[in-house]
Hints:
- The chain is mainly beta.
- It has two domains: about 1-50, no CATH class; about 65-145, Sandwich (Jelly Rolls).
- About 0% of the residues lie in helices and about 55% in strands.
- It has no helices and 14 strands.
- The protein has strands at about 1-5, 10-15, 20, 25, 30-35, 40, 45-50, 65-70, 70-75, 80-90, 95-100, 105-110, 115-130, 135-145.
- The strands form four sheets. Strands 8, 9, 10, 11, 12, 13 and 14 form a seven-stranded antiparallel beta sheet that branches. Strands 1-2-5 form a three-stranded antiparallel beta sheet, with no helix packed on it. Strands 3-4 form a two-stranded antiparallel ribbon.
- Strand 1 (about 1-5) and strand 2 (about 10-15) form a beta hairpin.
Amino acid sequence: MTEYSRQRDNDNIAADELSLLNGANVEGQRIKAQRVKIGFGGDGDFQDVGSGTPLPVKSASPTGAAELTDAGTITIPEGATVLSLLVLGESLSTTISGFESAGVEVSIGPLSGIIDWSDLDWVAGAEAEIVSAGGVDLVQALYRT
């Protein structure tokens, strides 16, 4: 049963009186759980979650992958977010350019050795590239469009 508790500033807080708590019977003990409505939005804005406005979530699954096993260029689609970058090799020079992270341009290189970055959250611009000069065993990028 939903009950409403009045607060000092006259706001109502919705709560359910529980009959079970973690599987144990608590009927008659007047234990309540606050009712919470799921929503989203910026400061001062609340959008109810519903079939027409689903809760926005960030998918961790890549929608694209690209790799090199020698000299070459990987072009990441504009607007894609790089999830992971793996560079393996002994004598390579790899350069990363054309990405932004939190509004800051990301350009790194030359890289060599074994490098594994995950959860990069770099967003590709129009000229986003990962360029290898050769001598590379593997350059792999996983991204989400």
